[in-house]
Amino acid sequence: MLWVDGARVADAGAPDRGLEFGDGLFETIAVVAGRARLVERHLGRLASGAARLALGLPERGLLRAELAAAAECQASGLLKLIVTRGSGGGGYASPAGPARRLLYAAPPRERPASHAAEGITVRLCETRLAEQPLLAGLKHLNRLEQVLARAEWQDPAIAEGLMLDMHGRLVCGTMSNLFVVLKGELVTPSLSRAGVAGVMRAALMDAFAAAGTGVIERDLGPDELAAASEVFVSNALIGAWPVRRLAELTWPAGPWARRAQAFVAEW
After folding, report:
1. Is the CB of residue 53 less than 8 Å from the CB of residue 142?
2. 20 to 30 Å CA-CA from 259: which of 79, 98, 178, 211?
3. 158 pairs with which residues across the strands?
4. Are the beta carbons of 78 and 111 closer than 8 angstroms?
5. Domain range annotation of the chain
6. Please, how many CA atoms are within 13 Å of residue 175, restricted to the half-sphere of its CB?
7. How many Cα atoms occupy the beta-carbon half-sphere of 32 within 13 Å?
8. Architecture of the 2-106 domain
9. 130 DSSP assignment
10. Quick one: 114-266 is in which CATH superfamily?
11. Closest Cα partner for 181 from 124, 252, 265, 264?
C-alpha cells in the first residue's frame, strides 16, 4: 500500500530504489540541432558508473537509439537519462535483474548570454563535499551536498559556487568542473576523493591535450586562486564559462576559456 500526499494509491507496486536510496545514476545531455552532444562520452561514463555500482544496463546501442530518437523531437534543450536499480531487494540488499531507466526531454535552461560572453561571479560554498573514493567521480542520484550548497545564496549576480572537500581542497562547482591557469599551465582539481567527473571536463582535457597542451590533474588549494591568471568552469550544458570574480579576486575572460569555448562549438 502507498499513500501520496495523504491519498491512497491503488496498485502502486514497490517503490523504486532510486527514490528510496538514491540507488542509481543519471546523465544530463545537451541537445543541439536535434542531436545529443557528446553522447558517446555520456554513455561511457554511465557504463563505467554502472560497472562500479553493479547495475545491469541494456546494451549501448539501445540506449544510443533511444537518446537519438528523443533528441530528434526538439531542436535544442536537454535530455535527462536516469538509471536506477529498480524495485525489490530486502532493505539495502540489492535485487537481481536489469536496471530501470527513465528518459525525459526538456527545453533549454534559461541562462544569460553574458555568462559565456563576459564571464561570471562565483562564491566559495560553506557546504563541504564528503570524501568517498568508492563513489568519487560518479554522477549518482544522491546530490544533497550540491542542493545544500546551492541553497546558500539567492543573489542572481552569483552564477555558481565553488565547493571544497572536508580537508579544504578545491573540488568543483555545485554544477560544474573547475579549470585554473597557473604559471601558464592548465590545472583541474583531482576527483579521486569526491566530485563528479564531468563529460565536458573530460572532453576539454582531451581537446587541450590533442592541441599540445596537457591538463594537470592534482589537488588544488583555494589559496592558489590568488596566483591564477585565468579561471573557468564547464559542464555538459553550459560548455565553458569564464570566471571573472570571486570575492576580491578578479580574472579576465582570457584565451584559455575562449579556446575551451571554441572546442565546444565544434561539438
Report:
1. no
2. 79
3. 121
4. no
5. 2-106, 114-266
6. 13
7. 13
8. 2-Layer Sandwich (3.30)
9. P
10. D-amino Acid Aminotransferase, subunit A, domain 2 (3.20.10.10)
11. 252
Nearest to 177 by CA among 152, 148, 203, 207: 203
pLDDT at 8: 87
How far out from the chain centre does Cα 202 lie? Answer: 11
CA distance 157 to 126: 18
User: CA 150, 203, 29: angle at the middle one, nearest 5?
Assistant: 55
| Alpha carbon separation from 132 to 129, 138, 195, 196 (Å, rounded) | 9, 11, 9, 12
Q: Please name which of 241, 256, 254 lies closest in space to residue 122, comparing C-alpha atoms.
A: 241
pLDDT of res. 91? 86
Q: Which of 249, 246, 239, 82 is nearest to 176 (CA)?
A: 239
* The pLDDT value given to residue 12: 65
Per-residue pLDDT, 206? 98
Beta carbons within 10 angstroms of residue 180's beta carbon: 23
Q: What is the grid cell recorded at 215?
A: 591538463
Crossing angle (nearest 10°) for helices 39-53 and 199-210: 120
Q: What is the pLDDT along the chain (267 residues), one digit of tens a residue?
A: 778 889 888 776 778 999 999 999 999 999 999 999 999 999 999 999 999 999 999 999 999 999 999 999 988 999 999 999 998 887 898 888 899 999 999 999 999 999 999 999 999 999 999 999 999 999 999 999 999 999 999 999 999 999 999 999 999 999 999 999 999 999 999 999 999 999 999 999 999 999 999 999 999 999 999 999 999 999 999 999 999 999 999 999 999 999 999 999 999
Question: Does an H or E element contain 36, and which?
Answer: strand 35-36
Side chain identity at residue 109, one-letter code = R
Residue 257 CB coordination number (10 Å): 26
And the C-alpha cell for 8? 491512497
